[in-house]
Amino acid sequence: MVSSICALLVLASMLLSNEPSGFGLAALMAVAPLPILLAAVLALDRLEPEPKLNLAFAFVWGAGVAVLLAVVLSMAGQALVLRAGYGQAVAGNIGVVVLAPVIEEGLKGAALLLLLRRRKEIDGLTDGIIYAAMAGLGFALVENVGYYLVAFVQGGADDAVGVFVLRGVISPLGHPVYTSMIGLGVAYAATRRHPARWLAIPLGYLGAILLHGAWNGAATLGSLPALGGAYLLELAVIVVLVVVTVMERRRVLGKIGGVLPGYQPTGVVTQQDVGMLSSLKARRHARKWAKRTGLSKAMSDYQHAATELAMLHLRAEREGMAPAEFTGQREALLHVMGAARRW
């Protein structure tokens, strides 16, 4: 609720201080690529979809609290630079290249720290990437409205479209990619036991700052080679993030194939079910079959609970778990699988 109010306040101030037509165009261009970007991010989350409420929280946090505080803190930081005797140009460059990455990544990453309190919701590196990307998409949505609106005021619709091509078409995943570094750090800390794991969070934050600063610095220089280098770096990080999610997905699918056969005596899983659960393609075919036979929700619940059961074994091996806690969670998941399995 607080984040939503913050987002509305920022957008309302943009609307009231500018022409409605310019704001409408800016908002339209900011929203236009969002469905595709959301689909791309959530496609990484197909195996173990995160709770919609948590995803919405991360997105709205980025669009609301993070944007509002970033504006306030950035203005305060630039004011301090000006007070120190530097000119407006220097203060502006410092604000873009240094203050913006430090402040914005810290604020977006705060969503991950808040979710860290619910450790069971961050049980893999993919989860950290997904939540960080959602916070980044929310932040970028509102920030882009501001950028497009400034361009419209300064140069009309043509300039606004030019900025849209750069931010909305060429590099629409900047904020999600930067903050994903923090997501990796938080997820690593949440899924390991050794004391040094907490160092992953500041290291992830540093990575996010460096990536963000590299792009902003290249844009400030206005150099095509610099922009090209920053863009290639961003693409390389995207490839790494995809590889991380694919490898983790394979590990979970392998765990399903190794763990679930041991539960066949319970009657909630058969060898055929194990085969179906161990492949994304087979899962998809099973959901299509279930939809035709009126068992769509049952199949979805079954697949989700079975995946959670495999993840429970992974967490127990990786982090350790009290026997009573493990047994309680295992029995609850087996109950859901038994209640859902009607084929």
Explain what this protein looks like in three dimensions.
With 343 residues, this protein is an all-alpha fold. It has 13 helices and no strands. The model has no long low-confidence stretch (mean pLDDT 92).
For the structure shown, list the relevant keywords.
343 residues, mainly alpha, elongated
Provide mean pLDDT, rounded. 92
Strand content: under 5%
**Proportion in helices:** over 70%
Count every beta strand, where a strand is a DSSP E run of 2 or more residues: 0
Distance between the termini: 42 Å
Which structural class do the helices and strands define? mainly alpha
Question: Using only CA atoms, what is the Rg?
Answer: 23 Å
Query: Which regions have little confidence, pLDDT < 50, spanning 5+ residues?
Result: none
Task: Work out the helix count.
Answer: 13
Q: Main β-sheet: number of strands, strand sense, barrel status?
A: none
Q: Any idea what the shape is?
A: elongated
The ordered H/E elements are: HHHHHHHHHHHHH
